[in-house]
Amino acid sequence: MAAQTGPMADVRDMYMVHGMFRREFGLLPELVRGVAEGDKERAKVVGAHTDLLCRILHAHHGGEDALLWPRLQERGGQEALGLVAAMEGQHQAIEETLERVTGLLPEWWATARNGAELAEVFDGLLLLLTEHMAVEERDVLPLAEKHITAAEWKGLGDHGRDVFAKKEFPLCFGLMMYEGDPEVVKSVLEDAPLPVRVLVPRIAPRVFASHSKRVHGTATPPRATTRT
């Protein structure tokens, strides 16, 4: 088990991503329940938001499956073996739930009918996701700081970007910036071209605020840290 050289992973950005997941997936069941039966215009707004969140989650976990778990299993010794297996099992359960969403969402998005089942699926997804993120923060991130290089960690963020349209990136980043530590935001962007480093911190919060007004009715939805 060779020791890794060079700067090691700065995992603070994972807390920023998790904060976004806790907030947005926490709000999602009631968003769906709040769409009146047959209100197709509102279903389009919430449906598009739902689709984006699910794609972000799928890409995020895909990066961990492809790039993080194999390295931790190779380098983390006995400490990592059972943990990686547990993480993979949790990912599988979450992915199966996302597949249920995929089966239900298109019809609800188009008709705004029979949303109760979709909302219940999101209730279940939230429970799975909350448990998974807690274990990841407690057990996985300390291992990543010891065994994953900074360059490898950055690759996690780059994985799966091809599932998003270029115009979606400001919103994706704005979703994470809303509760993100400014220092972490700066760190995430430090290797980006200068125009990106300058413009994204200005544009992304505005795009998020506009999106949030449409979806949540406010530019400042309840934060993950304040929701009960």
Detailed description of the structure:
The protein is an all-alpha fold. The protein has a domain of 152 residues: Up-down Bundle (Four Helix Bundle (Hemerythrin (Met), subunit A)). Helices cover 76% and strands 0% of the residues. The protein has eight helices and no strands. The chain is globular. The termini are far apart.
Identify the notable features of this structure and list them briefly.
single chain; 228 residues; mainly alpha; 76% helix
List the topology elements:
Layout: H1 12-33, H2 40-75, H3 78-111, H4 115-147, H5 150-158, H6 169-177, H7 182-188, H8 194-216
Describe the structure concisely for a colleague.
The protein has eight helices and no strands. With 228 residues, the chain is mostly helical.
Fraction in helix: over 70%
| Tally of alpha and pi helices | 8
Q: Mean pLDDT score, rounded?
A: 94
Q: Which secondary-structure class do the elements indicate? A: mainly alpha
Order of helices and strands: HHHHHHHH
Indicate the radius of gyration in whole angstroms.
18 Å
